[in-house]
Write the structure tokens for this entry.
Amino acid sequence: MSAATAAADQARSDAAGASRSPRMRALTLVADRRIELLEVAPPPPPGPGEAQLKIGAIGLNHIDVWGWRGMAFAKRKLPLVVGVEAAGVIAALGPGVASLRIGQRVVAYGALTCGTCRACREGRDNLCENVGGIMGFHVDGFARDRVNVPARLVVPVPDGVSLRDAACAPVAFATVVHMLFDNAKLEPGESILVQAGGSGIGTAAIKMAKAIGCTVFTTVGDDAKAAKAKALGADHVINYRSERFEGVVRKLTGKKGVDVVFEHVGPQTFNGSLLCLKKGGRLVTCGSTSGQATNVNLFQLYTQQYRIFGSFGASLRNVRESLAKMADGLTPVVDTEVSLGEFEQALARLESRQVFGKIIVAF
Ligand SMILES: [Zn+2]
């Protein structure tokens, strides 16, 4: 082929590319509680150490609800591309990325850690001292056709795990793995109370605790969810609207209490959760959906020798562990799969707790 023919082919291919659409879709938060599907410029070719992902599925979490309705302490600028948790396929690789290949199915860790501070070097990624923000919350996120991310934050999806399920790994599953096993150090045979067992993380916590042979107590807000939680394997399901959960847990444990409480509801349940703990028990919390502040009885805290863990996010190792669990058959409970246009309605359902399991947004 002559140089002139090659140049002409290149020109034709560029023109075809341009006519195909130089723009791509991005779900963008333009104001509090207002998300629009915009056409934006695609990312440039990935730079050194970067991977370009073609997004396939987004998992929704409460952090998306916080971002959508606005949060006083969150430093960010609008417009902002939403989507904190995603799975996709490698579309292109920048120079120097040998660990991934084009076409590979992957998830991405959405916190822009530095990779060099002591916490990062020790694998405690969620304690990074120089984190550049959480994608989809502080900086542009994953809810767009293509995005460039640091390749070191990309984790391959094992064979046999669907992209839909994998999209629940980086935030929901990894958060639960970090809470239960790194922080609360849940052991086989122990008892655990999982608050809000119908939520995305609640359903994952029930399944993970049952998988290692724990006795699981859980709370739900209606009878339909109670039946579903039971079907997941929960041993004791309490409808917190019709019964005082702390009374039921204490009665069922012979007034001893449980070894671990998995909290994320906040002020509405926090003191009741402490009352459910055995002496020396562990409470781990990653959320405060019912408000931000509560009172704690310090006398009870030290005389009962409770251990309380605050947990936020997870490590890259937890993401890999989550995907490995999925490959072993411990899959996420999916409430619904919705389209990009239904993103805001899905957030509203999540906010009103009208879900059982995860909501996935398909591309
Ligand atoms: Zn760091």
Summary: The domain at 21-168+332-362 is CATH 3.90.180.10 (Quinone Oxidoreductase; Chain A, domain 1).
